[in-house]
Amino acid sequence: MYRRNKTNGTWVLKASNGHGAYWTQGFALADDFEDSDGKSVLTFYEAQDAAKKLARDDAGTAPVTIEGALTAYETDLKARGANPYNAQWPRKHLTSVLLGKPVQLLTPRELKTWRDSLLNKMATATTNRLCRCLGAALELARQHDNRIQNRQAWEVGLAGLPDAIEARNVILSDEKVREFVGAAYEDGYELGLLVDVLAITGARPSQAVRLRIGDFLDHPIRPKLMMPKSAKGGGRNRSQKRHERYTVPITPALAAKLRVTAKDRASDEALLLQSDGSPWGDNPGQRYHRHVDNIVTTIGLDPAETTIYALRHSNIVRMLLKNVPIRYVASFHNTSVRMIEAHYSKYIVEHGDDMFRNALLHDGPSITSDLIALAS
Hints:
This protein is an alpha+beta fold and about 375 residues long. The protein has helices at about 45-55, 65-80, 85-90, 95-100, 110-115, 125-145, 150-155, 175-185, 190-200, 205-210, 240, 250-260, 285-300, 310-320, 325-330, 335-350, 355-360; strands spanning about 1-5, 10-15, 20-30, 40, 215, 225-230, 245-250. InterPro entries: DNA_brk_join_enz, Integrase-like_cat_sf, Integrase_catalytic.
């Protein structure tokens, strides 16, 4: 299309987005008042050729949209043994206009506007995670399409927001944790057993639901679970990480419950099941989040602040306050010393007040109290 201006007109590409709508993009100036330079100023015929290349590559394929980038990213995640939900999640928050927009036409401003709009719906840390998922999909699309030359759009527009490390690391007292577990069992035995495992081990839900019968090492005094690693941290070896295990001690009381649920079942079956007997799947939160909200409300807490991850946070802080070396705490929770220090240092100070007070230098007995006045 040609758009007339007071100065040079503009050549505008108008193309279908494949979703019943279309997108437009100005891509060059017309040669109304100056000669063509083959780049920013084009003749009519040069503009035709440029528009065709923009809308279709040399092989005649349409430009990759955000929707297409997410689809390709989901396929890539599955191939690498990673969680495909990382590609599905952004779709829930993207508008149809953005989903249908070609990646090569994205600008930092529109992605930043979208990112900032999320802050009214979710915590800053959650916004950053969602933006990283979308950014990974866009970067994968760029790597496979040389028409996409605007990496700055997502590097700037989806840049991480500051202060996200102050996540909702709600720390519960031991009594509140017991109430949480008890209320979960009242909601349903299977959910209660999952919550019990999370409270005792401090594992992430995505780890616990991947436990197999064979991962339960029964022992009358020292029962253990071989907890699957989370495969967090990116990289191309996620599939390998997901098959690695580490040892986590559990209580004899929890072992007794797991012994019952594991009885007469094959070693490769899921240890923890839903009430209908099916596994929890890769995204257990989708299945239990409403139940957990009710549980949190039942024990007098706010679901907007307290999530099932409070069990993990509380477990970590409990161990630190019991003087378990930080390296062991990190190892038992499949994280790093750096992350423990970054996320939990302030909670140690807040919850360790009595311990610190016992170590304060208090005033000694007054020296003058032992002096006897002499008669004058």
